[in-house]
Amino acid sequence: MPEDRSPVPALENALEHEQRYVDTVYGRVDDLREDARRRLQGVQRSGASGTHQNRSERDAFATLYADRLAQLNNVEERLVFGRLDLDDGGQRYVGRIGVSDVDQVPLLTDWRAPAARSFYQATAASPDGVVLRRHLQTRGRRVVSIEDDLLDAEALTDGVHLQGEGALMSALLEHRTGRMGDIVATIQAEQDAIIRSPADGILVVQGGPGTGKTAVALHRAAYLLYANREVLERSGVLLIGPSRVFLRYIEAVLPSLGETGVVSLTLSDLVPDVTATGTEPDDVAALKGRAVWSRIIARAVRAKERVLPPRDLTVGSHTVRLLPGDVREGHTRARRAHRTHNEARATFVRHMLSVLARQYAEEIGGVDPDERAELVEELRTSRDVRVALNLCWMPLTAAGVVSELFAKPHKLADAARGMLSRAEIARLQRPADAPLTPADVLLIDEAAELIGPEDEADRGRARAAAEAQRRAEVEYAQQVLGEGLGGGIVSAEQLASRFAESGPALTTAERALADRAWTYGHVVVDEAQELSEMAWRALLRRNPRRSMTIVGDVAQTSASAGVRRWSDALDGPLKGDWRLAELTVNYRTPRSVMDLATAVATAADPERPPSPVQSARDEPDAVTLHPTSDVLGTVRAAVEIAHERGGTIAVIAPRDQRAALTAELGLREASDLGAPLVVLDPAGAKGLEFDQVILVEPSEIAAQATGAGDLYVSMTRPTRYLDVVHSEPLPAGFEVA
Questions:
Q1: pLDDT value of position 230
Q2: Residue 502 has what pLDDT?
Q3: Angle 469-475-477 (CA atoms, 0-180°, nearest 5)?
Q4: Burial class, 178, CB count within 10 angstroms (exposed 0-12 / middle 13-18 / buried 19+)
Q5: Which of 9, 105, 374, 716 sits at 20 to 30 Å (Cα–Cα) from 143?
Q6: Helix spans in 382-532 (H)
Q7: Which residues pair with residue 523 across a beta bridge?
Q8: Separation CA 119–CA 109 (nearest Å)
């Protein structure tokens, strides 16, 4: 390697060279952005006039250009972040999206493209044709520093001066912002292999705190959308997070990677128009999470299909008789097609009206066969007939079934015979008007699967109309594209998917959010170790392709319904058909903090210690213990010191102390992640990270938890400092601090 005798001029020259190239790429993106904006404005100016086909075409292209404009706007920050110098003398720049010049010559390679893989995977032992890997660090559109990795010294060109000391460590030492940032410029080989793993099958990503599990999951979602565009653009990707606070924390990551079509939900949001505002003890939620509820709810639904004793039904001035044998025959016919409860009810009602109509005709006498339809309609509108048929096969709502079980213990006892104890049934009892809880949502989802559409006549007509409309839209889209519109960037199916009856077309994400039965092409689950058996049932229903990325750490399990071994959660529903990938390097947590947290978790549960991880951060003075008799005052003082250090601060405390601490610190909103200081309980802190954490009364946190997970989670949130404030004796394991 040539000796660098003038490093400062060499660095200045390198920065100027990279700045010119970055300016070129941004200039091209500006042109593309202006073109998309001009096309969008042109479509919008055309107004709402014209035929239905004209309006549909306008809306489809308006959505197309709006999506493109959003993508170009979202990648403004750190658009270009890498360069590969190849052994054939070529260079390849890597960035957030692919960009070509007006002659379609590539200027920037999308980080997800196969050509960019060497940026993450190449090593000195296996350079893969790469001589030099350069990381560009930018602020706005300005190149501020360069970090070089030399992979093949023998092939290095004379006159090239290596710059920088390490892009990864530079990124790790940046202050947190209260929102998760992407790691696209610093993905490590271990992480990249998981991100680019094939979409098929169930991939479990196990990793301790700070190993980048969540970042890997989000980058994998973006990569799969890029690599499997045709499938996933139509079906979508579902991302399940542990809380809405967590979803706010990660909300900017996927758009910054060039993707805007992922549906992000918590388990509480899975069923449209069902809102869970209630709370309940953890043991009750765990009880509702058991798989036996699938059988309990099935029994409860079946109980609404009854055989009544014989009874006379008045129809006008005449009487018909409801007979048990006819009802049983109706039940048999309705169940034969294996349809949902409400769908099968239509078959039952048709059979019973036909049987009763024959009786009615005989009662009246002299009825012409052509008049039979009029008799059926009379029977349908008779109050006695309606009540009797409803009692024999009740139309149901999913929320109604679940609420009734908890409000009427005798109903639950019948449905849960042999599956729940008397004490458990009593524990579950509550008023009929009690607010729904997150665990209830999963039971409602199970019931909805058995009950089906809650107004089948309207749903059936809507489905038939939608199918006919879809056929017409595809045919028209083919005609539109055949006339040369669309510029070759959209297929007939893609264009048709943006058409609507009126107004702007719904995106895949919008349609998925409105449809409980929507099936996704891929599902990503973060903090998956917390999921109950009923939660897994709900998610697997939404992904019949069994294409999922499951991310978590069994050592961080805090919910009673969660698991401490992946096999406990997955071997049953998946019959062992899943694969495991492990992240082993902690890039976030200082080694002294990680060692302490591991010691505390191991002391709490020696039989199942946390998985070992290798810490990349050695900061021996990161932990400070503050024994005190004045907890509030000591926390306030620790917060003042933390403000002087700079960066984001989280006070993590037992649930029952959170309100007092929030008031003491003068905060209006305790969990505003955009603020420099937040107050959280362990559940709210899950999945988040902060520059500094002030941990309050760890013994109380441990006592309130069902396992070691809550305290382990709380201790492993900081990237720089952990201050422990306590008036009570510390749990075992703290002696290593």
A1: 77
A2: 36
A3: 100
A4: middle
A5: 105
A6: 383-392, 398-407, 409-415, 422-428, 438-451, 456-482, 492-497, 508-514
A7: 238, 548
A8: 11
Cα dihedral 129, 134, 138, 142 sign = negative
Residue-by-residue DSSP string for 430-450: --TTPPP-HHHHHHHHHHHHH
Q: What is the pLDDT of residues 69-88, one digit of tens each?
A: 888 988 888 899 889 999 88
- The end-to-end CA distance of the chain, in Å, is 46
What tokens appear for 672 in the block? Answer: 């505003």
Check: CB of residue 164 under 8 Å from CB of residue 7.
no
DSSP state of 421: -
3-state DSSP assignment of residue 609:
coil
Residues near 319 by beta carbon (within 8 Å), at least 6 away in sequence = 312, 313, 363
Map tokens 């503050």 to a residue.
626
* pLDDT score for 297: 97
337 vs 449: CA distance, rounded Å: 16
SS (H, E, C) 535-580: HHHHHHHCCCCCEEEEEECHHHCCCCCCCCCHHHHHHHHHCCCCEE
Residue type, 338: H
**For residue 467, what pLDDT is reported?**
56
Which of 393, 334, 268, 427 lies closest to 416 in space, CA to CA? 427
Q: CA–CA separation, 367 vs 718, rounded Å?
A: 84
Contact by Cβ (8 Å): 519, 546: no
pLDDT at 488: 44
pLDDT of residue 227: 86
This prediction has a pTM of 0.74
Tens of pLDDT, residues 193-248: 999 999 889 999 998 888 888 888 888 888 888 888 878 878 888 999 988 878 88
Give the whole-angstrom CA distance, residue 563 versus residue 552.
11
Quick one: which H or E segment has residue 39?
A: helix 7-45
- Cα torsion angle, 511, 517, 521, 526, sign: positive
C-alpha span between 406 and 433 (Å, rounded): 10
Cα distance between residue 72 and residue 75, in whole Å: 6
Q: Which of 33, 31, 21 is nearest to 71 (CA)?
A: 33
- Of 637, 610, 638, 613, whose CA–CA distance to 623 is shortest? 638
Q: The tokens of 382 are what?
A: 């008779």
Q: Phi-psi bin for 166: left (phi > 0), alpha (psi -120 to 50), beta?
A: left
The answer to whether 183 and 172 have CB atoms below 8 angstroms apart is no
CA–CA gap between residue 474 and residue 481 (Å, rounded)? 11
> Using an 8 Å Cβ cutoff, are 320 and 359 in contact?
yes
- State the pLDDT at residue 559: 67
Give the tokens for residue 238. 């579902």
Q: How big is the CA angle at 220 (ends 217 and 221), to the nearest 5 degrees?
A: 90
Annotate 618-679 with DSSP letters as a single string.
Answer: --TT-EEEEE-S-HHHHHHHHHHHHHHH-S-EEEE--GGGHHHHHHHTT-S-TT-TTSSEEE
Q: Which two tokens stand for residue 439?
A: 């665990």
Q: In what order do the strands lie in the sheet with 718-726?
A: 623-627, 718-726, 690-696, 649-652, 677-680
Q: How far apart are CA 430 and CA 409, in angstroms?
A: 9
Rounded to whole angstroms, how far apart are CA atoms 479 and 458? 32
Best CA proximity match to 379, nearest among 356, 395, 412: 356
CA distances from 141 to 25, 80, 166 (A): 10, 9, 21
Q: Are 252 and 674 in contact (CB under 8 A)?
A: no
Helix (H, G, I), strand (E, B) or coil at 135: strand
Kindly give the parts of the chain with pLDDT less than 70. Answer: 1-9, 47-56, 153-185, 256, 258, 260, 366, 369-370, 455-507, 559-561, 616-617, 706-708, 737
